[in-house]
Amino acid sequence: MERIWLSSYPAGVPADVALGEFPSLGALFASSVERHRDRVAFINMGAKLSYGEVDTLSLRFAAYLQSVLELPRGARVAIMMPNVLQYPVAMLGALRAGYVVVNCNPLYTPRELEHQLKDSGAVAIVILENFARTLERAIAATDIRHVVMARMGDLLGFPKGAIVNFVVKYVRRLVPRWRLAPVTRFTTALAQGAAAGFRPVAVGPDDTAFLQYTGGTTGVAKGAVLSHGNMLANLTQAHAWIRPVLSEGDELVVTVLPLYHIFALTANCFTFIKIGASNLLITNPRDVPAMVAELAKYRFTILIGVNTLFNALMNDHGFARLDFSALKVALGGGMSVQKAVAERWQKLTGKPLIEAYGLTETSPAVTINPLDLAEFNGMIGLPLPSTEVVIRNDDGRDLPLGTPGELCVRGPQVMKAYYRRPDETAKVFMADGFMRTGDIAVMNERGFIHLVDRKKDTILVSGFNVYPNEVEDVVALHPGVREVAAVGVPDAHSGETVKIFVVRKDPALSEKSLIEHCRRNLTRYKVPRLIEFRDDLPKSTVGKILRRALRDEPPRP
Predict the structure, then answer these.
(1) Rg (CA), the chain
(2) Which residues pair with 78 in a beta bridge?
(3) Cβ atoms of residues 467 and 503 within 8 Å
(4) Which strand (E) or helix (H) includes residue 94?
(5) Mind listing the pLDDT tens digit for each residue in 115-142?
(6) Of 263, 214, 206, which Cα lies nearest the Cα of 230?
(7) What's the CATH fold of domain 4-8+22-368?
(8) At 467, is the pLDDT very low, low, confident or very high (cuts 50, 70, 90)?
(9) 459-552 and 4-8+22-368 share a CATH fold
């Protein structure tokens, strides 16, 4: 397809970007350190780390992995932390030493964590102590040999760090008792790494940087193999888009979305490292009043989030009193931005919500709207520079403009493969290199893309994927369940929520019993909020349960 979207590009944005400026993400960071050594890189709970301090600490952690643990090049290092200062230190340290980072959601259940650690082959994990109990219950079946345990206040300085650690453990009781051995404290690892010294490693664009886990309609979590080149390409594409409106070394980006999620990892972290921005890390986004109080302390220029975040902020009475005069860009992704939320946001802040679209498999950005958009347009935008997009039918043929079809993408940000899953990789890649996204979209004559529906059955809860088969497999483990189907239904707070339709085996089976069962085996956002008991479920002629029939039928009284 001709790249018709180029005529709609904002002034100053190139059709293609030059790749190869840096061989690795570590080299990118080192370049920013040279230019912005004394500038604040990360802020969390009032504590600040400069680019120079992150440089020193990450090299110490890299040396610990190299010389103390003696991990071989390319070893998998899992990180299981929310947005705390220890995350960028550990993540950058692992990458600079030539290791592969496996991001783990701290809210995982033991079952979910065990699968990801086993599948990735991770041999070391850096984890916040709050989640040690989960690891304790999962570790036996994995290859994990080294555990580095961080505490919330480890990098907050004295006495604040000690106070935070005391409050978290003994006042708020957020650290359950755990028994793991042997364990190295994060601060000890840094001290040992400082004594050992870092040995520079040649890391190239084809080396794997992340095994970033996603899933599909099969419900099996898959690791997208994202190389340093993939990530560098995407942040370069994003930088080309934002460069006309943002300033080098003069931005403050608010990171509410967790850095272990690919959206925040690229959009918030690496893209803004490139321009020497400061990054305000919000550890607990569920505490909206505390988040608003934190925002009130800073003149933030960039706010990136999902629809539910923007909605939650506007429902807090204190948010409207913030100073939005410095705000340049409010970017929404991860899930569809709702028109009502976008219109309310612009009225309140004076800035439009700019919608973008991406996938874990594309590092993640594929499309974005112009940053100078006058108002919300309901589109996911235009393909980024050096990105090709086509709309195809099920047979792989290109469709005319205005015709709905599967959105397919080709570009330097597209993953290499799914880790150790050639069958799944073959399903998404076409012969000409285009990758199927599983999403149905329409492109107009100006190249703007409207997302119509998801071809997959994936349920999107607050920007996080929930896979029906996984939910169904867990529910089906309950002895009182005969059959189950999981679907997504609209929800004013989270965009979608999980609903299950259940045929009982035990007539006494209750909603309460099922919910308790799910909570023991699923992360909170995957737990069904709605349950409907049925005598039977609609099926195809071959006996397959028809989720779409359940999803499309009107609600029963």
Answers:
(1) 23
(2) 102, 125
(3) no
(4) helix 86-96
(5) 999 999 999 999 999 999 999 999 999 9
(6) 206
(7) Rossmann fold (3.40.50)
(8) confident
(9) no
pLDDT band at 216 (very low <50, low <70, confident <90, very high): very low
> What are 487's two structure tokens?
């679907």
Burial class (CB in 10 A: 0-12, 13-18, 19+), 432: exposed
Question: Which two structure tokens, joined as six digits, stand for 260?
Answer: 């272990």
pLDDT at 338: 81
Q: Which residues pair with 279 in a beta bridge?
A: 42, 253
Beta strands (DSSP E) in 143-198 are 146-150, 184-185
Tell me the pLDDT tens digit for each residue of 505-546.
Answer: 999 999 999 999 999 999 999 999 999 999 999 986 455 788
Contact between residue 91 and residue 66 where contact means Cβ atoms under 8 Å apart: no
Q: At what angle do helices 186-196 and 86-96 cross, to 10 degrees?
A: 40
Domain ranges of the chain: 4-8+22-368, 459-552
Q: Which CATH number fits domain 459-552: 3.90.700.10, 3.40.50.1820, 3.30.300.30, 3.40.50.300?
A: 3.30.300.30
CB 482 within 8 A of CB 503: yes
CB 119 within 8 A of CB 221: yes
Nearest to 34 by CA among 232, 277, 279, 276: 276
Provide the terminal-to-terminal Cα distance of the chain, rounded to the nearest Å. 48
- The amino acid occupying position 532 is E
Q: How far apart are CA 209 and CA 416, in angstroms?
A: 11
Sheet with strand 353-358: strands edge to edge:
47-50, 40-44, 278-281, 252-255, 302-305, 329-332, 353-358, 365-368, 382-383
Q: Name the least confident of 211-215, 224-228, 500-504.
A: 211-215
Distance between CA atoms of residues 489 and 529, nearest Å = 10
Phi-psi region of 30 (alpha: psi -120 to 50; beta: other; left: phi over 0): alpha
- What CA–CA distance (Å, rounded) separates 527 from 510? 15
Residue (of 65, 86, 90) closest to 75 by Cα position: 65
